Amino acid sequence: MITNIEELYQTLSEAMDHSIWWNTENPWEIVIGSILVQNTSWKNVDYSLINIRNEIGFIPKKLAEIDLLVLQDLIRPSGFYKNKSQTLKEVFVWFRSYDYNIATLQEKDLTVLREELLNIQGIGHETADVLLVFVFKKVVFIADKYAQRIFNHLGLEEALTYLKLQSLIELSSDFTNQQAQNLHGWLVDYGQVYLKSEEIWQTGFLSNFKLVLA
After folding, report:
1. What pLDDT does residue 68 have?
2. What is the pTM of this model?
3. Bridge partners, residue 51, by sequence
4. Residue-level pLDDT at 71
5. pLDDT given at position 116
6. In terms of C-beta distances under 8 Å and separation of at least 24 residues, what long-range contacts does 88-92 make, across chains too?
7. 120: closest CA among 105, 141, 137?
């Protein structure tokens, strides 16, 4: 178990930008974006989001009812549009079963809510956790590829999978949702800059940071 996550958080907090990770406060846009960004760049996702915004807006009822072929055309720039359109349809049908009431879902137990998300075709561990943190305001460590590579550099020499790294992270009981959002955003931003090569990693402020294992 890694015991100095709070120290890592503080180190990042002192050096990283405190901007908002998602450039929208619309939770439905975040839901769509978190699905569309799988295996593609955010630039491609932006094209799809513009198409959806212009066609129907980010109205959950319309997204649950939209014709699948129409949706496929709207999100085509994001790639894998057939699978992603099916996932979007299913996730918004799931929201419909809760009358599109995010507040109701936020009150559900984290483990139960995560299991429901994972039961939706096309929703994997990372996407489920992104939704838990950024839409449902839960406290979860998102152990994505950037986090895995950074933690390898920080001293975890074993091969890491999403669930393996997540099992090693125990956030403190007073860790807040905003901190969970910050931690994810900072690790991604840091990774995009300093994981390009070993030489570039050595120029970063985390190059001498080492994790403490219990």
Report:
1. 96
2. 0.95
3. none
4. 97
5. 98
6. 88/32, 88/35, 88/36, 88/63, 89/63, 89/64, 90/120, 90/121, 90/122, 91/31, 91/35, 91/120, 91/123, 92/31, 92/60, 92/63, 92/64
7. 105
